[in-house]
Design brief:
The complex is a heterodimer. Chain A is an alpha+beta fold. Chain A is about 20% helix and about 20% strand. Chain A has nine helices and eleven strands. Chain B has a single domain (about 10-425), classed as Formate dehydrogenase/DMSO reductase domain (Formate dehydrogenase/DMSO reductase fold). Chain B has helices spanning about 5, 10-15, 15-20, 25-50, 70-95, 105-125, 135, 140, 145-175, 185-190, 200-230, 245-270, 280-310, 315-325, 330-350, 360-385, 400-425. The chains are: A alpha+beta, B mainly alpha.
Chain lengths: ~260, ~425
Amino acid sequence: MVRYGMVIDLSRCVGCRACMEACKVENNTPKGVFWMYVFVREEGKYPNVKVRFMPRPCMHCDNPPCVKVCPVGARHKRKDGLVLTDYNRCIGCRYCEVACPYGVNSFNWKNPVENQYYDWNSEEGKDVFGTGSIKDEIGEVIPPYKNPDLEELYGEERRLTAGGGHYIGVIEKCTFCVHRVEKGKLPACVETCPVFALHFGDLDDPNSEVSKLLVKKSWFRLLEELGTEPRVYYLGQPPFTHLSKNILIGPKVRV
Amino acid sequence: MKGEGIESKPEEQLLRPIIYTTKAFYVAIAVLIGTTMWSGYAWWTQLTQGLVVTGMRDLGVSFGSPWGVYIANFIWYVGIAHGGIAVSAGIRITKLEKYRPIARMAELLTVITLLMAGLSIVFDLGRPDRIFFMIIYYWDRIGQSPLIWDLTVIFAYSILSVTYLYLTMREDIATYLEKLPRRWRWFYKPFLLGYSPGEKEKVDQIAWWIAITLIVLMALLSGGVIPWLFGLMVSQAGWYGAVQGPYFLTAALVSAISGIIIIASIIRRLFRWEKQIKPEIFKGLGTILAVLTVIYLWFILHEQLTIRYAGPTTELAISDALLMGSFSPIYWTMLIVGLILPFIYLAIQAIYPKVFSLKGTVISAILILVALWVKRFLLVVISLLYPRLPYPVGSYTPTWVEWSLVLGTLAIASLLYIVFIKIYPIIELKRS
């Protein structure tokens, strides 16, 4: 049985945030939404300073509090370990967001089409292209936020679970790039990472890269004491105790 | 004067609001419908533009609070509802004749506030068009989701309390039907379906059993399911813990008694029912309110002391925000003006009966009721603004849409209450 998991090597991470960027490009998440987020922490005083980073995807917990509280079963855990949201079923109560200790959920407060980085329906293109909207320039090409790959149904149950920016008023979160994983590819963040800090694979297979890393190095998991059994393992030293004060604020975008 | 003939008999005085319509009634109805329409406009704005028009935002990266005043409003209404029916059932089970005039007021308060609680949840949903999914997938989710437990509770309570209210009203409708002008009787006749004058004993028996059921369920529902919505969330410091059960139950009773005091005083003043609703009722309710409020304060002490003594970091951050941080002005005002001062006043009044004043009791009840709304607001929001992971500290300011919808629930509740009083007698008629 496949059981997907991620291993993040904190000693390798350089805080370039390419994973955040890759995630946004791959999943078409709306403005202000970061399914992958990199915590940054500065320690010490000049000249003895250290900056540390910690990427945070969805933990795809084995005992997921978000799945437990969902009143309609939109949030579900698949047999291969992925915790996904069925965008066709979510009623937008945001209970999963409240129940998740990692803060990985994002809600579509606004119509996601209007909340993309460029409003493809507007006449804004005039400024950029001289005449008409951007539609006139690109013709009938599908705008990036309508990636047909993300509209496919995935998993045994064939549910609409891939990508972001689908409907207004529903919850979305990191999917471990289910649409790529099912085709045998790596999640976008893992694929992009320039320093091989992120690793993805089958935790049940002792010969997989992730399993070998976990045997070789010492690891910890985030907020393990809450009993959520996260499927994301961190190698190296925890960059912060909970709620330490020296956190640099990262992206500060609000819809 | 028109009503002079009726003034003489106290029993018929109870029917006066039904038979005569004053100008104030029309003004009140117009104002309330206007407010409701305004909140309808606010809801339309929210439905068309999305919840972006509210002050709520994502927890964590967007440093917001995913839940806000709608959920606070929900807890507040559910509290009043559960407490209200408990008061009424208590009066009927223990046959407290002195308090009987307020029994129906409490029942009606329960039915209406339950509706408003449900409405608050609908306002909060991102996709209210999919709300029936909660019923379609009911059996899949009942084992796990506290929100589904909530839905069950609200339905069960609604059905039980409506049945209860209706059963206890049947005899009254039969009694006053003859006293009404002929042209209105058609409206009341369907309510008397299958009525026979000898049914009183049977109906009383059924009502008694429903009352017992409601009281027994109360400990598990208001002191269980609703607090479990928060108390079971290990992810949120400040919510998680076993204290929430008794804490919420006390708050429910406190808010319900405050609500009943306020409503009974308004009705008493409005219809000049000084003889029907005696000051002793308010005095008794005030004493119970004092006891329950001090129990509530005792729970607050427990909660804060446990956090501050041991000082676990995430919990402490929340307690700091409450006691000395950005929320401290609201918190201390709520605690001192809203709970401690009214408690002291009510306690003095309970010990020295000479000090009793109706006005003071009602003002205390208003302060307590508002304080409990604020308390629920603080409970919901602060934990969400201080997540466990080191995200930036969040901020939340409700927008005009949220305030309009909260105001809307108050307007609809008042409207329903007034319309009910206009159609049915709010105080049980005395049987001759």
